[in-house]
Amino acid sequence: MLQKTIRQTIELKGIGLHSGRETRMRITPASPDSGIVFKIGEERIRAIYSNSHNSLLCSTLVSNRYKISTVEHLLATLYALNINNAFIEIDNEEVPILDGSALIFAENILRANIRLQDSVEKRIIVRREIAYTNNNSYAIVRPSSDFRIKFTIDFKSRLIGRQSLSIKITPEIFIREIAPARTFCEYQEIEHMRSLGLIKGGSLENAIVVDDMRILNSSPLRFIDEFVRHKILDAIGDISLIGYPVSGEFEFYKTGHNANQHLINNIFSNKLNFEIIDTPEITIEEKKKISEEFSHLPEIIPSYS
Question: Are 52 and 241 spatial neighbours (Cβ–Cβ below 8 Å)?
Fold first, then answer.
């Protein structure tokens, strides 16, 4: 399999969920083996687990001088669409929340088109079960030939309640089933989060707000289990910090970004846990087939206007 980048430049702007400040962002193609790299000021921060920082309610990348928060939806989209290399210039310390889902990121990436590069893609293979537990939550990854995620949530709100979903992650499934799922919160938590200096940019335009058995948004849920689907979206963003496409089956029970990132760190804590391999080279015909498959992806993007 060959590495991939985007073909055209993407420009986006929007409000940061927690900062409340407008951010402008420019995503450009990057050379093979670059990885996903953010540029803020004069610093570059690669989106990899060793640069991640445990923060409340979002995933954050850090350098000596800067931090970039709420990276998970963008990173999940790049990862699920198999984009290995991209350069992201950003003028503020938070990625825009947009509509609270990953759908706008997916639309823009597919509109920019995906370009195959002349370098073989590396893949990380999980070789044995690895776990992280914390009180009554846990995160586990097991060997698998595919990339799969099972997530279970259990909230006090009767509308959310207990939801569980197990799903194989492919570009097509991500676009249809995961990317549209929006971030959410319970109404009674809003005052507490604001007291911590969070969700300054939060609104009913970029988050589902749940008050026991009703949602306060005028727009309906996109899925009956949209809440657990969004947690899978967040988890993909955290998993992307592995830095390579992964073959493994992940199971998350009532976890957040902190626990997810602990699991990623545990994978790399022992070299016997994983193996990094070169994927097989492909023929010209296979390369053509992959390009055709990606060219059809924009046709399946769901619309919620």
Answer: yes
Contact status, residue 58 vs residue 72, Cβ threshold 8 Å: yes
Taken in order of first residue, the domains within the chain and their CATH numbers are 2-292 (3.30.1700.10)
Q: Which long-range contacts (CB under 8 A, 24 or more apart) does 159-163 make?
A: 159/210, 159/212, 159/213, 159/214, 159/215, 160/184, 160/186, 160/210, 160/227, 163/225, 163/227, 163/228
CB of 42 closer than 8 Å to CB of 123 = no
Dihedral sign, Cα of residue 33, residue 36, residue 39, residue 45: negative
Helices (H) and strands (E) in the chain, counts: 7, 20
Q: Of 73, 257, 262, 296, which residue is the catalytic one?
A: 257
**257 counts as catalytic:** yes
**Separation CA 214–CA 92 (nearest Å):** 34
For residue range 45-85, list pLDDT tens digits in order.
Answer: 999 999 998 777 899 999 989 999 999 999 999 999 999 99
Q: Give the end-to-end CA distance of the chain in Å, rounded to a whole number.
A: 36
